[in-house]
Amino acid sequence: MTTLILVRHGETDWNATRRIQGSTDIPLNDTGRAQAQEVAERLHQELADAGPVVVSSSDLSRAAETAKIIAATLAATPPRTYRQLRERSYGIAEGASVEEFRDRWGSWAEAEVPEAETWPQVRRRALAGLQRAVRDARRDTAPHAPTVIVVSHGALIREVIRHASSGAFPLEGERLANASTHRFLLERDRLSVQSYAAIPMT
User: Could you tell me which residues come within 8 angstroms of residue 97 by beta carbon, excluding any fewer than 6 positions away?
Assistant: First the structure.
């Protein structure tokens, strides 16, 4: 059994102006770096007696930099990055504002955007990436069981929560804030939600 903590990356300029990022590689801004340091210090306190901790992330720079800040604070080895853990590709919607997205394509969950990944594609990719990250972490810390921290992205983490809760969570109208943390247990191939952090969608 492995404790898995998913962390959404810190804020970027596109987050601040409510633009769709997807697979576009937008870096952290100064607020995002401060958020990453804050969550790193919180995790350091929470995991003080947890044994080995391994940090990994999406290969997009906003997640990778957040992961580096966390790993440095926890005195963990430098994070591995995984392309499978990057954000959902939103196709031609990337760069659009949230309002423009809603005007052009409608409901976030049901929108069909040209060239965008489907939700089932995102879920398959996410689960495969998490299994790979956990497998690598277990190998690196054997014979000890690690806590695995994975820094990723809002839409991907939402899809993992949906999978692990059989669609019960997140609740309608909830969103996952930058630098929020979400805890799971992975036992063999079964992923279950321990807790997730959400705020009202605006």
Answer: 17, 18, 19, 20
87 is an active site residue: yes
Do 11 and 32 contact (CB within 8 A), yes or no? yes
User: Is pTM, for the whole model, over 0.85?
Assistant: yes
Q: Show the tokens assigned to 121.
A: 């594609």
142-162 tens-digit pLDDT: 999 999 999 999 999 999 999
Active site residue 112: no
Q: Which residue is catalytic, options 11, 87, 117, 159?
A: 87
Which tens digit of pLDDT belongs to each residue from 98-153? 999 999 998 877 788 999 999 999 999 999 999 999 999 999 999 999 999 999 99
